Amino acid sequence: MKIRLLTFLLSLNLIVKGQTISVSGNWIPTVTAITTTGSDYSSSALTSAANQTLITAGGLGSLLSIKNYQISVSKTNTNWHNNLVLTARRTGTGTPSFLGLLSASGGTTAQTITNISTAFFTINVSILSLGLGNASISNIPIEYSLSGISVILPAKTYSTTITYTIVEL
Fold first, then answer.
1. pLDDT value of residue 104
2. DSSP E strands: which ranges in the chain?
3. Would you list the domain boundaries of the chain?
4. CA-CA distance, 154 to 134, in Å (whole number)?
5. Beta bridge partners of 168
6. 2 or 44, which is more confident
7. Chain centre to alpha carbon of residue 145
8. Helix and strand numbers, DSSP H then E, in the chain
9. Is pLDDT of 130 > 60?
């Protein structure tokens, strides 16, 4: 009986499962009006809430595997000015599922988001996961910062879309 159970469990490990990533949050920063003629906006950046975006990654790990996953970030400009600089940083670890020990590493210093997808942080499945591919980590908090705001920019609404991707390393 033990041999059949082991064969069954190893067979389940061969089932292909894909990783999933979901992202929630939207940031619309507010720029304080200038009250003194001839002045510019403060040179300091606008910063979002520490948990402005929450990332959840699922389908991580499978029976008898230790894996790492890279989360990358990029932006697609809808209406953007080259003087504007948008950064992101991970401000917390998220909540791992009970079926495996998962952790996030890296991404805790501000990283400029560009139009080219670049590595942001890593999710590590650090012990054998019995989640059969269903291990997950949820609510990884992300904070944004926007700089480069100036009176020399044309007065209009600027927007960009941030994309997060997950890849097994």
1. 92
2. 20-24, 46-47, 53-60, 68-79, 85-90, 95-96, 102-105, 111-112, 118-125, 135-147, 159-168
3. 2-25+41-168
4. 48
5. 69
6. 44
7. 14
8. 1, 11
9. no
* CATH class of the structural domain 2-25+41-168: mainly beta
Q: List, as one string, the DSSP characters of 8-19.
A: HHHHHHTS----
- Report pLDDT digits (tens) over 10-38: 333 334 457 888 999 999 988 877 767 66
Structural tokens at position 2: 């033990």
4 backbone dihedrals φ, ψ, rounded to 5° = -65, -40
**Could you report the per-residue pLDDT of 77-115, keeping only the tens digit for each?**
999 999 999 999 999 999 988 555 788 999 999 999 999
**Token code pair at residue 60:** 């991580």
What is the b/e burial string over 30-44, where b = at least 16 CB atoms within 10 angstroms of the residue's CB? eeeeeeeeeeeeeee
Choose among 40, 60, 52, 63: nearest CA to 130: 63
| pLDDT value, residue 30 | 84
SS3 84: coil
pTM for this structure?
Answer: 0.83
* Alpha-carbon span 107 to 90, nearest angstrom: 5
Residue 116 burial (CB count, 10 A):
8
- C-beta of residue 138 within 8 angstroms of C-beta of residue 24: no
How far is it, in rounded angstroms, from Cα 66 to Cα 54?
Answer: 24
Is residue 3 over pLDDT 60?
no
Amino acid in position 35 = T
